[in-house]
């Protein structure tokens, strides 16, 4: 029976918002003016039903006559200049397909075999074929996952012939052959290949493809962090491995609230009333560079599963998003071949994070965006997640011999395996050889119901251990869980998206939305019943054994048999050379602005700097209120558009206990000195948390290093950044409890140019507070309040500042963070907020004091009169020392008493008149309307996102 | 006795816990009920005094927001729903729940299977989260005593534009079924973005059936039942959180049944 096609579109006389959005993009980002109008239509295809049944489906499911037209098996929009259909490539799972089948069956069409959906775009006007081609390539189709449909498909069902397990003749290979094998698919060094060869020679047999693949996966940098675990020789001096330094510091601090550090899928910290909170921050740079929407979405999905797979299962409370891009107005000619434009990347990454978090019902309420031209080859996409779980189920579980290996959630496909792609022409054939897709679209609803099932099973004590199927799929999930016991799994039992996968592909597939649980046999029935009731697929793959081997079968035949000890400990620790030479960046000689007009101009440009300007267009697209826990949103104040420093959540309804979440990073500083840059990031993260009221004695930290491929020099830089984290952690007695490194931020262009993405160190901080009412926001509360700058301010050190950047300089004198002073400053600010001495607080970051005061004024609807000390006024106003705070005192409180013992200075007062004025001695420097600064501050991203 | 509240959930429901908390805080006995449990009959709608369909992305909002769940309810639970309504028990739909009620036909006319209005994609073309002001109008069990007041709730949706053909719109207006209307700073209904966040006709944010027993609205009253949920609670707020009265009214009514 032929496929049935139903098209629906919004009636021509009504607004088509999706079409309007495309039109805006065509005009604003491509500059094409010939398109007058864009209309969109949905295309739905069904297999296995009659035309009459298709009509029934159109009228009861797909079409709403109030605002739409529809057409059955014929075109719907016929009056456009150009019409094209965009669909996911075969093999990319379209999440909507399952809903279409479900609804058709609910409507009585039980025999429907398959369904799919896609979009049609209709262009009106004098648009040329060349323009349509440009629009298609730049805006509508991401060739990694989508294609233009030129021919109606004949079937929607995917299948392929089964592929056998192959033995690799490793024993007889010479070094050249070993490296050829590695280069093609394994990415291991010759030394590592020889280790594998020796192992199988000792066993007296050759390995299967499953065995070689799992070793390559388990020993990959991504999974085993060879660099972070290596001994370093830094400029001739032997130093402890990077990871060990961080872990040692945490061990020595012995913080009483740490429940688990660096051992589980996220770090766990005590909360209140028998609950614990956990946090994990991940990067998803490479997938997001190729397919930003799917890459960012599945990045969120992955980090949510890390939280869900902590202890015996946690509920995800919050999501964070931190991005680095090239400026959105970067000329196309500056974009390396094969890279996507930052304007497109930014919008699509935001959309991916938005759709995954919003759909799963996880508020995204903390984040940032940083811009630097050197991110043009590859963006940095950091996604974090925080969760809550009962304290008595917060320790990492250990499977016992006899426990069952249960896979739950999505099905397994060829996702993420060695990147081969699917030809769209294959779709017209009856039997299709299904190829891989490196990037998936993500299916947040699958993950949400899986989360519901995990929490229900956890509460009934049915989960012994649980982990996410992330990189390495079943291989790494089961391999890690069963490291101490051994495991035996039957790969043919895994539910598949389509037939035709080789056993090794099932083993290594990175299909999203899957987790593995260890369930005791006596709990299996109850576990499966919970999953069934919530529409979650669950399958017993095998069991944890006592033989400390990792074995897999396929239809009864053994396809893998490895000792866990070789898999996990067979790789020798490395010794790596590192070196560090301080780069030299000239310090500019600048004159401070002289006239009020010059001040207004400079102040306005600082506010409009991409690393300072308002993030509102992004923030608005994230649901930050879902779960009802938000007690300090990202934007607040009289017009609900002024930024706050951190998220404050009350995860237990009706109780005052608060979780504070913040982060800090400033990649450009690491170009000057990764040590001071590292301290800055950590100080900024913690200052953000303390600025809203967090207690520095009850904060845990998470590190994320996103670094260029570490040659000696890059490794030397990394060594300094890790030392900064360790020194910070020890000085403040704040433990790192989770972290991640991604060491691949180097891009080689075809003509030999190497672009090293700026090294990024992102520090995330989260902590607890007993009473949410003892927190503050950043907006000014009253006119006539005393303003105080608290902290060790280094106004003469302007290296890496926005102010220098506006003049085209990087500089070399970074604002140093004094670790002997910072702890007392943080404690004083926290105490002041707790006691109610302070009614508003904002920390200094990019743009310095001037930006902090302006943002506080935006929120308050008031102004400020600043009295500057005898220091260069431009440096004083725009210096970016981390760990400093602008504080609005409560009426009648004496700063000398409140901030006794720590550096502080009076800097002026709030005013009813909405102007920011500054004077130095007798001289008034400027008086600028707050509205002028706000307009400058709001404009840049409005232009990127429209509206 | 605490009236039992059926908090209906399915794949992709995600405002269930805070909605349950809002009812619990107001003296109800909320229970989370999966639609599968009603389909299999292991739990029965008739055992509840109140039904709420919370926000979220039921079945991913595929095809149309709330559509797949609406099809499921009209296919399998038509009699149960009709019985529930005919026995005078209140039904509340928030955000995705409102979309479901419109797509089942329960709103605006309590005629199951008869779709008379719709909630379309926002004029802005995108999901947005922002606090909005609304005027309370009409008569419903949920808004008793609130008529004429202006309340502030958070809206968070991508498909919230209320749209109906002119004659339906006129009829809804004439019979006083508009329950919430987006208003500007001065308190006047508005078509202007962002005070009207989605381009809803006649600034309609929520409406009832003719009996006032069924209420649907796009913004989230359950996100404002604690003072600290408001973005500016630190600037000083007067009175109780705006969302509370709605849930309290519903519980009071259900208790009297």
Describe the structure.
- The complex is a heterodimer of chains A (947) and B (257).
- Chain A is built from 29 helices and 39 strands.
- By secondary structure, chain A is an alpha+beta fold.
- Chain A has 3 domains: 4-149, Phosphoribosylformylglycinamidine synthase subunit PurS (Mth169, Chain: A, 2-Layer Sandwich), CATH 3.30.1280.10; 159-232 and 405-422 and 462-573, Alpha-Beta Complex (Phosphoribosyl-aminoimidazole Synthetase, Chain A, domain 2); 321-385 and 583-945, Alpha-Beta Complex (Phosphoribosyl-aminoimidazole Synthetase, Chain A, domain 2).
- In chain A, the strands form 8 sheets. Chain A has a 7-stranded mixed beta sheet with strand order 16-18-15-19-17-20-21. Chain A has a 7-stranded mixed beta sheet with strand order 34-36-33-37-35-38-39, with helices on both faces. Chain A has a 6-stranded antiparallel beta sheet with strand order 3-1-2-5-4-6.
- In chain A, a hairpin with a 5-residue loop joins strand 30 (746-748) and strand 31 (754-756).
- Mean pLDDT of chain A is 93; it is low at 419-436.
- With 257 residues, chain B is of the alpha/beta class.
- Chain B has a single domain (4-256), classed as Rossmann fold (3-Layer(aba) Sandwich), CATH 3.40.50.
- Chain B has a 9-stranded mixed beta sheet with strand order 2-1-3-4-11-10-9-6-7, sandwiched between helices. A two-stranded antiparallel ribbon of chain B has the order 5-8.
- Chains A and B meet through helix 1, helix 2, helix 3, helix 13 and helix 14 of A and helix 1, helix 3 and strand 6 of B.
Low-confidence stretches of chain A: 419-436
Q: If classified by CATH, what would the architecture of the largest domain in chain A be?
A: Alpha-Beta Complex
Strand ordering within the main sheet of chain A: 16-18-15-19-17-20-21
How many helices of chain B? The count is 7
Q: How would you describe the shape of chain B?
A: globular
CATH superfamily of chain B: Class I glutamine amidotransferase (GATase) domain
> How does the helix and strand content of chain B classify structurally?
alpha/beta
Cα distance, first to last residue of chain B? 11 Å
Given this structure, which CATH class of chain B is correct? Alpha Beta
The CATH superfamily of the largest domain in chain A is known as PurM-like C-terminal domain
Largest sheet of chain B: 9 strands, mixed
Counting DSSP E segments of at least 2 residues, the number of strands of chain A comes to: 39
């Amino acid at each position: 029976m032929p496929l049935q096609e139903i098209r629906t579109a919004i009636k021509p006389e009504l607004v088509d918002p999706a079409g309007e959005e495309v039109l805006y993009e065509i005009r604003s980002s491509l500059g094409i003016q010939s398109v007058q109008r864009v209309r969109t239509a949905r295309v739905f295809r069904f297999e296995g039903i009659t035309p009459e049944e298709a009509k029934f489906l159109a009228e009861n499911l797909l079409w709403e006559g109030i605002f739409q037209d529809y057409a059955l098996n014929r075109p719907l929009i016929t009056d456009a200049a150009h019409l094209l259909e965009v669909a996911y490539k075969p093999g990319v799972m379209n999440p909507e397909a399952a809903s279409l089948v479900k609804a058709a069956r609910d409507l009585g069409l039980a025999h429907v075999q398959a369904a799919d959906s896609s979009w049609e775009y209709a262009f009106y006007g004098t648009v040329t074929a060349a323009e349509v081609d440009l629009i298609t390539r730049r805006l509508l189709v991401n060739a990694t996952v989508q294609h233009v449909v030129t021919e109606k498909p004949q079937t929607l069902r995917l299948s392929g012939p089964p592929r056998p397990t192959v033995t690799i003749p490793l024993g007889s290979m010479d070094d050249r052959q070993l490296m050829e094998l590695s280069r093609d698919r394994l990415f291991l060094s010759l030394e590592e290949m020889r280790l594998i060869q020796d192992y199988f020679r000792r066993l007296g047999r050759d390995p299967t493809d499953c065995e070689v693949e799992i070793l390559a996966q388990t020993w990959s940098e991504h999974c085993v962090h060879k660099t972070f675990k290596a001994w370093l020789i830094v400029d001739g001096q032997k130093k402890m491995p990077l990871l060990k330094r961080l872990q040692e510091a945490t061990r020595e601090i012995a913080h009483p609230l740490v429940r688990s550090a660096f051992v589980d899928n996220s770090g766990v910290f005590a909360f209140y009333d028998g609950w614990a909170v956990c946090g994990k921050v991940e990067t998803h740079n490479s997938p997001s560079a190729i397919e930003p929407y799917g890459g960012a979405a599945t990045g969120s999905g992955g980090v949510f599963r890390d939280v869900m797979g902590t202890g015996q299962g946690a509920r995800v409370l919050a999501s964070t998003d931190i991005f680095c891009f090239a400026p959105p107005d970067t000329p196309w000619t500056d974009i390396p071949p094969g890279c996507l434009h930052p304007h497109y990347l930014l919008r699509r990454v935001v959309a991916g994070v938005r759709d995954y978090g919003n759909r799963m019902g996880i508020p995204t309420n903390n984040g940032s965006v940083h811009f630097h031209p050197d991110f043009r080859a590859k963006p940095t996409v950091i996604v974090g997640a925080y969760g809550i779980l009962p304290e008595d189920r917060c320790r990492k579980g250990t499977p016992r011999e006899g426990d069952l290996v249960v896979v739950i959630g999505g099905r397994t496909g060829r996702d993420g395996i060695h990147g081969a792609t699917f030809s769209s022409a294959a779709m017209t054939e009856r039997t299709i050889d299904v190829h891989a897709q490196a990037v998936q679209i993500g299916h947040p609803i699958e993950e949400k119901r899986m989360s519901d099932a995990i929490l229900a099973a956890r509460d009934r004590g049915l989960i012994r251990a649980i982990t996410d199927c992330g990189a390495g799929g079943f291989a790494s999930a089961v391999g890690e869980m069963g490291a101490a016991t051994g495991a035996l799994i039957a790969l043919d039992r895994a539910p598949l998206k389509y037939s035709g996968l080789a056993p090794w592909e099932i083993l290594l597939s990175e299909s999203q939305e899957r987790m593995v649980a260890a369930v005791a046999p006596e709990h299996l029935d109850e576990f499966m019943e919970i999953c069934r009731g919530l529409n979650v697929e669950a399958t017993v793959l095998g069991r944890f054994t006592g033989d400390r081997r990792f074995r897999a079968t396929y239809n009864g035949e053994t396809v893998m048999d490895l000792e866990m000890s070789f898999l996990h400990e067979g790789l020798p620790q490395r010794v790596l050379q590192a070196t560090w030479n301080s780069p030299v960046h000239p310090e500019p000689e600048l004159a401070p602005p002289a006239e009020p007009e010059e001040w207004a101009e400079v102040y306005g440009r600082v506010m409009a700097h991409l690393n300072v300007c308002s993030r509102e267009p992004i923030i608005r697209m994230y649901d930050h209120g879902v779960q009802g826990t938000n007690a300090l949103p990202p934007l607040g104040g009289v017009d609900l558009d002024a930024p706050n420093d951190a998220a404050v959540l009350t995860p237990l309804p009706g109780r005052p206990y608060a979780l504070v979440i913040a982060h800090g990073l400033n990649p450009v500083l690491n170009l000057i000195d990764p040590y001071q840059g590292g301290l800055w990031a950590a100080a900024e993260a913690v200052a953000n948390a303390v600025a809203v009221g967090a207690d520095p004695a009850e904060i845990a930290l998470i590190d994320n290093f996103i670094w260029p491929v570490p040659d000696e020099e890059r490794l030397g830089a990394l060594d300094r950044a890790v030392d900064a984290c360790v020194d910070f952690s020890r000085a403040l007695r704040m433990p790192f409890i989770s972290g991640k490194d991604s060491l691949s931020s180097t891009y080689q262009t075809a003509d030999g140019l190497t672009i090293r993405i700026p090294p990024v160190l992102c520090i995330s901080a989260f902590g607890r507070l007993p009473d949410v009412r003892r927190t503050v926001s950043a907006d000014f509360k009253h006119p006539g309040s005393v303003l105080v700058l608290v902290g060790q301010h280094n106004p003469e050190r302007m290296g890496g500042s926005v102010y220098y950047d506006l003049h085209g300089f990087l500089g070399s004198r970074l604002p140093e963070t004094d670790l002997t002073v910072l702890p007392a400053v943080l404690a004083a600010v926290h105490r002041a907020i707790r006691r109610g001495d302070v009614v508003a607080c904002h920390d200094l970051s990019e743009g310095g004091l001037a930006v902090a005061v302006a943002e506080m004024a935006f929120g308050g609807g008031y102004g400020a009169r600043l009295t500057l000390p005898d220091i260069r006024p431009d440096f004083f106003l725009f210096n970016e020392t981390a760990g400093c705070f602008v504080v609005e005192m409560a009426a009648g409180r004496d700063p000398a008493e409140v901030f006794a013992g720590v550096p502080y200075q009076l800097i002026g007062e709030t005013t009813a008149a909405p102007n920011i004025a500054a004077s130095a001695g007798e001289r008034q420097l400027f008086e600028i309307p707050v509205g002028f600064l706000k307009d400058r501050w709001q404009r840049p991203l409005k232009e990127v996102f429209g509206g | 006795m605490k009236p039992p509240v059926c908090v209906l959930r399915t794949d992709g429901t995600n405002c269930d816990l805070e909605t349950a908390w809002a009812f619990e805080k107001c003296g109800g006995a909320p229970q989370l009920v999966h639609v599968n449990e009603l389909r299999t009959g292991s739990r029965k709608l008739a055992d509840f005094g109140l039904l709420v369909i919370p926000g979220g992305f039921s079945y991913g909002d595929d095809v149309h927001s709330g559509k797949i769940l609406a099809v499921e309810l009209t296919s399998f639970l038509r009699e149960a729903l009709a019985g529930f309504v005919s026995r005078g028990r209140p039904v509340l739909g928030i955000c995705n729940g409102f979309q479901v009620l419109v797509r089942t036909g329960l709103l605006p006319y309590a005629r199951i299977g008869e779709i008379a209005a719709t909630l379309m994609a926002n004029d802005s073309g995108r999901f947005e989260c922002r606090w909005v002001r609304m005027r309370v109008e009409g008569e419903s069990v949920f808004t008793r005593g609130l008529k004429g007041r202006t309340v502030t709730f958070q809206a968070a949706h991508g498909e919230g534009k209320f749209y109906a053909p002119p004659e339906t719109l006129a009829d809804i207006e004439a019979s006083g079924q508009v329950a919430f209307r987006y208003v500007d700073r001065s308190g006047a209904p508005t078509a202007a973005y962002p005070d009207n966040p989605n381009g809803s006709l006649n600034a309609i944010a929520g409406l009832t059936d003719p009996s006032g027993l069924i209420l649907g609205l796009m913004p989230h009253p359950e996100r404002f039942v604690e003072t600290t949920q408001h973005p500016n609670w630190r600037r000083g707020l007067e009175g109780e959180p705006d969302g509370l009265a709605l849930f309290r009214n519903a519980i009071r009514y259900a208790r009297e049944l």
